[in-house]
Amino acid sequence: MTTAATRGDRRISPVFLGIAAVTAVAGWAVWTGFADATGFAVFLFVTGAWIVSLCLHEYAHARTALHSGDLSVGAKGYLTLNPLKYTHALLSIVLPVLFVIMGGIGLPGGAVYIERGRIHGRWKHSLISAAGPLTNVAFAIVCTAPFWLDALDGVPRAFQYALAFLAMLQVTAAILNSLPIPGLDGYGVIEPWLSYKVRRQVEPIAPFGLIAVFALLWIPEVNIVFFDAIHALLRGLGVEEFQRYCGYDLYRFWRGLFDEQDPGCAVG
């Protein structure tokens, strides 16, 4: 009985499999040029892949917590990769997707609820928090590999652009979520090493950490410095700025309904 329940708690959700299937089909459509509306296919592919990465980000937190002593994550459905099981599905999925649509930025979401009292040892707590951003780093490596390996021969331009834009989302998510700001994973990494007094003082403002990051990025000077760093990092990985720009231009397929998209990004 217990064994069956445990297996059920870890069975991959049909919701996640559906998202992965849509992503795969959209990626195939972008690669082959099968879709008449390339931009819409890019939109589905990038959005689907972004949601998949968000699910795996949260899964990494939960799986690490499971092995660190919090057995409750299974009963909560966190190991099924179902985004509807998260503590805040709105924060974990909907808002990050909206941020991509509005500004082309991979703002991290949250969250799975970890019962920290079940876990002993500061290193375990730090590792649980670090697991999520490390997943985004892994995604970024996969997305940029064709660029820094110079393996783009035969890869359709539309797919290159989509991959470049997706890589930027993963890099921005990894960097932003690694900031030592309360409410983000970067703070979760250092929190176990802070004094009890400091942790108690910070606790009330933790829910506003993500909002603070979003607000800071609206400041032009901060935005410029941040994206200059992102562009420099991606250039070092072989991803050129025009590829990322064209990926975002194609992603916003709806602009073609009201505005002419950049002719320099034409893939037909």
From TrEMBL:
Keywords: Cell membrane, Hydrolase, Membrane, Metal-binding, Metalloprotease, Protease, Transmembrane, Transmembrane helix, Zinc. It is a multi-pass membrane protein. It is found in: Cell membrane. Belongs to the peptidase M50B family. GO terms for biological process: proteolysis. It comes from the Bacteria. Its cofactor is Zn(2+). GO terms for molecular function: peptidase activity. The chain crosses the membrane at residues 12-31, 37-56, 89-114, 126-149, 161-184, 204-227. It comes from Streptomyces globisporus. This is Sterol-regulatory element binding protein (SREBP) site 2 protease family. PANTHER family: ZINC METALLOPROTEASE MJ0611-RELATED (PTHR35864), ZINC METALLOPROTEASE YWHC-RELATED (PTHR35864:SF1).
